[in-house]
Amino acid sequence: MTVVVVYYFTSWVTYGTEICASFAPEYKDTARDTSRALPSSSAFMLALFTFVFRTVQCGPHPVESL
Question: Whole-angstrom Cα distance, residue 23 to residue 57?
Answer without folding.
Answer: 35
